[in-house]
Write a structure and sequence with these properties.
Blueprint lengths: L1 E8 L5 H15 L4 E9 L5 E4 L15
Parallel strand pairs: 1-2
Antiparallel strand pairs: 2-3
């Protein structure tokens, strides 16, 4: 089994795409030999936060802005 961390967010103009892509990656890892150990969200100031998988399914990227 392979363990990995999923990184998402940041301050680029493509931030919303990063959040949506992370959700898609997490969904596609279900049932594979890959274990998603941690999800790290980077806010617009590049501060890192460990978040739960359920937060990937927030309605909008602005829901991630603390």
């Amino acid at each position: 089994m392979v363990s990995l961390a999923l990184l998402l967010g940041g301050r680029s103009q493509e931030r919303g795409i990063s959040l949506n892509s992370a959700r898609s990656v997490a969904d596609h890892l279900v049932g594979t030999d890959v274990q998603l150990k941690e999800i790290i969200y980077f806010d617009r100031h590049l501060r890192a936060y460990s978040i739960s998988r359920s937060l990937l399914y927030c309605n909008t990227p602005s829901a991630f802005d603390y």
